[in-house]
């Protein structure tokens, strides 16, 4: 019996997922437990493992959205069974998921590409190109839609690809000679500029792009900046680090800030709110999202926001473990939607990136009403009791949604936060 | 090397195989005299029991041959014109062809259906057919199509020695062709194509007389287009590898075949090229064959059977070139 590969239900609110990529080709043998499919929800990208071993039959191509539980594909025990499946549930171009993806990528608008006057003009979206020319172009990473066909009926033929490759080589050789003699030939040229890499706007990158633009479109965001004296916090953390062995983990400033922030929000709940259907909803649950950077490849970064639920009720150890385990799952592609949904306020600590970046204007993580950015703790001049002193100072930037609240409560919140940070002994009151 | 006629080469093969194996005999209409002179002189050498004339009944010729083959002889059934296979179709296509398989491979049917094919002699619909697609559509029959004297002898010897039925079709237009044939013993194996002419632009696949037409056109186009001409020599078994190797080199293919275009050899080989070397194609595969109509006699024949200019036009269209008018409109056709 063929085993279906269903779309897993990854979270309580998850209804559907989009096929991002198949990791095996149609008809290929897949061992049980191998990552066979990558799917994406509004929040996360997730690797689906093969529920059994078998010959893969792909039922849904990348880009298609399926409801939870629907079969994205099947694993056939035998070749005969595979053939039956292929006959019963054929998918247009099922044999070439990779090709389908490429087409999708090629179809996406590339900014700055001037339409060629001579025009390969894929008017109906169908490119007239010989199989040999297409293969050759693919082998050399050449986008066939940029080529002009000179074959019969304007078909792109081998010669056209070879001409483009020669031109590319010549262009990059002369560009390399002019600019960086050491640079090797073989760059793709776009609008006269050499391309280092193309990074498709898909998966997490696409989700972040959409989400950031959406947030700026819907909310009236403004940012206030301040600076907090971290003398006491530094001392606290030092004490905790010295007892790392007995505590069982290495306390980070992020852990401490989440701890303090949750208590500040409990004291000033108007910042822990969302605009829902024309009403400002103040949340009783204080769920703090913590932005965590992910390095995907040398040029690609990602961002996830694990949620520390009811952070105001959690101990420092619980906060630490919530962030750490979600981050670990994110790095291994096993993040669950519940790990990253339901936050009511977000903290982004850019202090982890070094000393250079102080303040910023963070963008609100919708549908929240505020986001707090903390920068690196740097020794700076400060006036203490009328005297100039050197103090470890931390820059703080708070963006809030002026639709939901005004400056006064923000000032109250910042005062409270400052008080807790600079006098952490009040936390135990 | 000495040079002899295509029909002499056939005659030599028959004589040598009859001397080599006393089970080999010829049966057919007028084989003692000889319609196309391919059996000339054999009755004098081997007697009427091994060069057996029959009444005008192709069913009798083919039926007797099938029976003799089952009994351990190796008959060469001379059907004169391949067109007459329609008369003995049951014996050829439903008896000789499948019996080796239907009897669980315990029975062999070692016989040769020897027949003349082809047009260009204005002999009308019942004496001009090529019959290749018909044979290929009946599994169990091998099909040899010599395009020159050397292959005519070598392929016939292999056909006679084969343990199951072979259709050996010689082309009427090639009978007077002169070519080198060694005096010493040789055979031409089945399923081994020959590159008749090397080229770089377009692969032309052709058999039998069409090989000469292709070579004639290739010579006419020399300097403008470089054609590679492949002669599979047998269509069953088919040496697809040699064809694919050539297509991978040129990126373009034309199949030139004399049989009716529809469901013909061009469709079959063209499809196999697509199935096996799609990524090597820089242009669609083209096929040229006889028009989908009965073969007319007289001057009308030229409008049905493939003409050299058609091949030239196919080639230039694949290359996106301007049409080249052949100086010699009968290139490859008027050979002798």
Please describe the topology of this protein:
The complex is a heterodimer of chains A (429) and B (336).
Chain A: E1 3-6, E2 16-22, E3 29-30, E4 35-40, E5 45-49, E6 54-58, E7 65-67, E8 71-76, H1 79-88, H2 97-107, H3 131-139, H4 158-178, E9 188-190, E10 193-195, H5 204-218, E11 221-229, H6 231-242, H7 244-247, H8 253-267, E12 273-276, E13 279-282, E14 288-290, E15 292-295, E16 301-304, E17 307-308, H9 316-331, H10 337-340, E18 345-349, E19 370-374, E20 378-384, E21 387-401, H11 407-422
Helix pairs in contact in A: 3-4, 8-9, 8-11
Chain B: E1 3-5, H1 6-20, E2 24-28, H2 42-46, E3 51-53, H3 58-70, E4 74-81, H4 89-102, E5 112-117, H5 132-136, E6 142-144, H6 149-161, E7 166-171, E8 178-180, E9 194-197, E10 202-206, H7 209-221, E11 227-231, E12 234-236, H8 240-250, E13 253-260, H9 265-277, E14 286-290, H10 308-319
Parallel strand pairs in B: 2-3, 2-4, 4-5, 5-7, 6-7, 10-11, 10-13, 13-14
Antiparallel strand pairs in B: 1-8, 6-12, 9-11
Helix pairs in contact in B: 1-6, 3-4, 7-10, 8-9
Describe, in plain words, how this protein is organized in 3D:
The complex is a heterodimer of chains A (429) and B (336). Chain A has 429 residues and is of the alpha+beta class. Chain A has 3 domains: 1-115, OB fold (Dihydrolipoamide Acetyltransferase, E2P) (Beta Barrel); 128-196, Irregular (Dihydrolipoamide Transferase), CATH 4.10.320.10; 203-428, Chloramphenicol Acetyltransferase (2-Layer Sandwich). Chain A has 11 helices and 21 strands. In chain A, helix 3 (131-139) packs parallel to helix 4, helix 8 (253-267) packs across helix 9 (316-331) and helix 8 (253-267) packs across helix 11. Chain B is of the alpha/beta class and 336 residues long. Chain B contains 10 helices and 14 strands. Chain B has a 7-stranded mixed β-sheet with strand order 3-2-4-5-7-6-12, with helices on both faces. In chain B, helix 3 runs parallel beside helix 4 (89-102) and helix 7 crosses helix 10. The radius of gyration of chain B is 20 Å and the shape is globular. Chains A and B meet through helix 3 of A and helix 10 of B.
């Amino acid at each position: 019996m063929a085993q279906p590969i269903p779309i897993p239900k990854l979270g309580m609110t998850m209804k559907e997922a989009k096929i991002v990529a198949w990791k095996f080709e149609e008809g290929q043998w897949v061992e049980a437990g191998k990552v066979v499919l990558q799917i994406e929800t509004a929040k996360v990208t997730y690797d689906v493992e093969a529920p059994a071993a078998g010959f893969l039959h792909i039922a849904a191509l990348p880009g298609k959205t399926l409801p939870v539980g629907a079969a994205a594909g099947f694993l056939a025990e035998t070749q005969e069974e595979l053939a039956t499946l292929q006959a019963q549930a054929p998918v247009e171009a099922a044999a070439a998921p990779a090709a389908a993806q490429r087409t999708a990528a090629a179809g996406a608008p590339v900014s700055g590409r001037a339409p060629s006057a001579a025009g390969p003009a894929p008017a109906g979206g169908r490119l007239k190109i010989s199989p040999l020319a297409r293969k050759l172009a693919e082998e050399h990473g050449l986008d066939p839609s940029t080529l002009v066909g000179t074959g019969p009926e304007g078909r792109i033929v081998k010669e056209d690809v070879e001409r483009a490759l020669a031109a590319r080589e010549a262009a990059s050789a002369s560009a390399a000679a002019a600019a960086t003699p050491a640079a090797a030939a073989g760059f793709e040229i776009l609008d006269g500029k050499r391309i280092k890499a193309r990074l498709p706007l898909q998966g997490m990158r696409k989700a972040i792009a959409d989400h950031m633009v959406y947030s700026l479109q819907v909310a009236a965001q403004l940012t206030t900046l301040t600076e907090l004296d971290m003398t006491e916090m530094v001392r606290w953390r030092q004490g905790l680090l010295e007892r790392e062995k007995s505590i069982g983990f290495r306390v980070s400033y992020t852990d401490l800030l989440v701890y303090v922030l949750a208590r500040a929000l409990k004291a000033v709940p108007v910042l822990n709110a969302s605009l829902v259907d024309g009403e400002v909803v103040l949340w009783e649950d204080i769920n703090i999202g913590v932005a965590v950077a992910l390095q995907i490849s040398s040029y690609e970064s990602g961002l996830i926001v694990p949620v520390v639920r009811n952070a105001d009720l959690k101990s420092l150890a619980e906060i630490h473990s919530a962030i750490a385990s979600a981050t670990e799952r994110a790095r291994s592609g096993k993040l669950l939607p519940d790990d990253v949904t339901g936050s009511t306020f977000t903290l982004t600590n850019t202090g982890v990136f070094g000393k250079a970046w102080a303040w910023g204007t963070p963008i609100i993580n919708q549908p929240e009403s505020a986001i707090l950015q903390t920068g690196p703790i740097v020794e700076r001049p400060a006036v203490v009791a009328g005297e100039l002193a050197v103090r470890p100072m931390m820059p703080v930037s708070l963006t809030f949604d002026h639709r939901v609240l005004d400056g006064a409560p923000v000032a109250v919140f910042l005062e409270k936060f400052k008080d807790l940070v600079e006098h952490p002994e009040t936390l135990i009151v | 090397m000495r040079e002899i006629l295509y029909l002499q080469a056939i005659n030599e093969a028959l004589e040598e195989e009859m001397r080599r194996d006393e089970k080999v005999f010829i049966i057919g209409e007028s084989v003692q005299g000889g319609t196309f002179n391919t059996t000339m002189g054999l009755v004098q050498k081997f007697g009427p029991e091994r060069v057996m004339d029959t009444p005008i009944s192709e069913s009798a010729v083919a039926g007797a041959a099938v029976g003799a083959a089952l009994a351990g002889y190796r008959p060469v059934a001379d059907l004169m014109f391949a067109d007459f296979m329609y008369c003995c179709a049951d014996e050829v296509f439903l008896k000789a062809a499948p019996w080796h398989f239907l009897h669980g491979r315990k029975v062999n049917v070692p016989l040769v259906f020897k027949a003349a094919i082809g047009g260009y002699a204005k002999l009308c619909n019942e004496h001009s057919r090529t019959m290749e697609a018909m044979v290929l559509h009946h599994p169990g029959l091998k099909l040899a199509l010599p395009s020159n004297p050397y292959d005519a002898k070598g392929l016939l010897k292999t056909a006679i020695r084969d343990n199951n039925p072979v259709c050996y079709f010689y082309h009427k237009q090639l009978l007077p062709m002169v070519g080198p044939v060694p005096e010493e013993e040789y055979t031409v194996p089945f399923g081994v194509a020959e590159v008749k002419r090397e080229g770089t632009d377009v692969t032309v696949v052709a058999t039998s007389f069409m090989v000469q037409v292709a070579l004639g056109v290739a010579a006419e186009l020399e300097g403008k287009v470089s054609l590679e001409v492949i002669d599979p020599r047998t269509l069953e078994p088919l040496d697809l590898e040699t064809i694919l190797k050539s297509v991978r080199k040129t990126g373009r293919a034309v199949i030139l075949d004399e049989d009716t275009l529809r469901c013909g050899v061009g469709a079959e080989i063209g499809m196999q090229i697509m199935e096996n070397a799609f990524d090597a194609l820089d242009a669609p595969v083209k096929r040229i064959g006889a028009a989908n109509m009965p073969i007319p006699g007289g001057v009308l024949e030229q409008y049905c059977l493939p003409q050299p200019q058609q091949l030239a036009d196919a080639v230039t269209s694949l290359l996106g070139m301007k049409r080249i008018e052949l100086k010699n409109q009968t290139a490859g056709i008027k050979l002798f």
